[in-house]
Amino acid sequence: PFIEHVSDQDLERLALDRVVPALLDQGFYHLDGLLGELAGGAVRDQVAELHRAGALQDGRLASSAPGIHRSSIRGDKIAWVSGSERGCDAVSFLLGILDRLISVCAGRLAGKIRERSKAMVACYPGNGAGYVKHVDNPNGDGRCITCIYYLNKKWNHTHGGVLRIFPEGKSYVIDIQPLFDRLLLFWSDRRNPHEVQPSYSTRYAITVWYFN
Ligand SMILES: O=C(O)CNC(=O)c1n[nH]c2ccccc2c1=O
Ligand SMILES: [Fe+2]
């Protein structure tokens, strides 16, 4: 019901006119309105259902409170999704769009893109947990492009959860709000250390990594 066809021409124009130049020049690129309200909303609803159904497992321990009881503030919760699971057809649609976009880019970016990870569906529960500054692929594990699709409607500054990129060798930082139907791509290696700042509202994102 939600499938809106995204034409090859649209994706090719987006890839060649915007994504490739930005990745080659800046090392990252983000755009809004990738899927549109209907399809984007379907992806968001399917992720929220995974969360409700308890399919997202506790990620890393964000911090364990000192003292007697071993209460611990949990960080991100994640699930690895191929898209073929029941109730994930909108996620599968998104992955298909990303694969087509990247395949058009691949020829013009350094090195071939051979394959993609499964989709990592992540939820930051809004308890102030975030993700410390890190490089996704610091030691050449094959991941070359990180693609993050954000799902959060009515997100504003009071919710925190900004993704801050510290482009290598640059004196400025790039702050990206995790807004609904927003796509962010960046080189996965040491060129793009980044952090997720503490989130104060439930924060959903889907990440895939492309390998060369
Ligand atoms: O959500 C974001 O905006 C950025 N997110 C990240 O950089 C990020 N990077 N690496 C991970 C590895 C395991 C679990 C979650 C993550 C994770 O959220
Ligand atoms: Fe990361």
What does this 3D model show about the protein?
With 212 residues, this protein is an alpha+beta fold. The protein has three helices and 14 strands. Strands 1, 2, 5, 6, 7, 9, 12 and 14 form an eight-stranded antiparallel β-sheet that branches. It starts with 7 loop residues before the first helix and ends with a strand. The model has no long low-confidence stretch (mean pLDDT 91). Fe (ii) ion is lined by residues 134, 136, 194.
Layout: helices, strands, pairs:
Layout: H1 8-25, E1 28-32, H2 37-52, E2 57-58, E3 61-64, E4 72-74, E5 77-81, H3 89-106, E6 115-116, E7 119-124, E8 131-134, E9 143-150, E10 163-165, E11 174-176, E12 182-187, E13 194-196, E14 203-211
Antiparallel strand pairs: 1-12, 2-5, 3-4, 5-7, 6-14, 7-14, 8-13, 9-12, 9-14, 10-11, 10-13
The structure holds N-(4-oxo-1,4-dihydrocinnoline-3-carbonyl)glycine and fe (ii) ion.
